[in-house]
Amino acid sequence: MKKYIYLLTLTATAFFITSCGSEDKKGVEDNSPAIVVKTSQVEANTNSPFLAVSGKIQAANSADLSTRMMGYVNKVHVNVGDKVRKGQLLVSINNSDLQAKRAQVNASITEATAAFNNAQKDYNRFKNLFAENSASQKEMDDMTANYEMAKARLESANQMKNEVNAQFTYSNITAPFNGTITSKNVEAGNMANPGAPLISIETPGHFEVMAMVPESEISAIKKGTTVDVLVKSINQTLKGQVAEVSTSAKNTGGQYLVKIALDKTDANILSGMFTTVQFPVERKAATAMVLIPTDAIITNGQLSGVYTVSQSNTALLRWLRLGRTFGDQVEVLSGLNGDEAYIVSAEGKLYNGAKISVQ
């Protein structure tokens, strides 16, 4: 009889605990106020007035300086960011072997000059004797050949001197134009190898954009056309003109290289910045595009998304696949349809599943 009483007591206790747990769950029900948000309808553009392609800014006048000789670097005379003048010494490479070779060449020139002067005197003497029939034709031919060989040896020695002097120019790297040092790839004591870039220099203030245009659109790009260049990192649109249009895509994977000369500007642009170049040409095939403002995009690492409104009036994060940028708008390739709305602003921090109230 006691066993039944004990079981009944346990059952009652369990029911009491379960009832308390249910009451606790009801007590944590979300009663937070809804976040007030503003939404906007997706814009579907079916006829883009321009062709947009990616590009990259580079200096109009730039050079990577290297050497044709191998040797240890004695001194690097500049640092990155230094302004230099044309002809200014930038890098000195050890040239003791060239100095020894130049001394040998100078000695050869001295010897060849003495031999040439002696051969010239003998040639003139025998020339007069031959004119007076005091020397045979064989003797005159021998003197002429000796004179010509001495003259050739002297010329060869002088050309060797020119070669050594040319090699000396590669031991002292100088600036080819006025500009700014943009990179330094060598330090004192390093070994300089032929063809390896040592110093990079560019002329500041004069920039151009290199853009790649697909083969389906290249025929519409004309030299001299004014284009808009959106610099993404500073969010500014600059003006430029098409300076060159490549006629071959052999080495560029089916994309044609187009060079745009940027107009002079006070914008803080640097070489290497990525851009979007907008050409004022009609697209050959008008396709519907879904455009949303870049301010509405939520990023998480490599992912991009936007908040939308669910049927239960909660925030719903939708991941997107984005395409090209058009000014302050970006093309949505997938993840959002043309008849949907998205959240553009909120009076609070949004998260997936947050209660919202559309204003």
TrEMBL record:
<dbReference type="Pfam" id="PF25973">
    <property type="entry name" value="BSH_CzcB"/>
</dbReference>
<keyword id="KW-0175">Coiled coil</keyword>
<feature type="coiled-coil region">
    <location>
        <begin position="133"/>
        <end position="167"/>
    </location>
</feature>
<comment type="similarity">
    <text>Belongs to the membrane fusion protein (MFP) (TC 8.A.1) family.</text>
</comment>
<feature type="domain" description="CusB-like beta-barrel">
    <location>
        <begin position="210"/>
        <end position="279"/>
    </location>
</feature>
<feature type="domain" description="CzcB-like barrel-sandwich hybrid">
    <location>
        <begin position="63"/>
        <end position="193"/>
    </location>
</feature>
<dbReference type="InterPro" id="IPR058792">
    <property type="entry name" value="Beta-barrel_RND_2"/>
</dbReference>
<dbReference type="Pfam" id="PF25954">
    <property type="entry name" value="Beta-barrel_RND_2"/>
</dbReference>
<dbReference type="InterPro" id="IPR058647">
    <property type="entry name" value="BSH_CzcB-like"/>
</dbReference>
<protein>
    <submittedName>
        <fullName>Efflux RND transporter periplasmic adaptor subunit</fullName>
    </submittedName>
</protein>
<dbReference type="InterPro" id="IPR006143">
    <property type="entry name" value="RND_pump_MFP"/>
</dbReference>
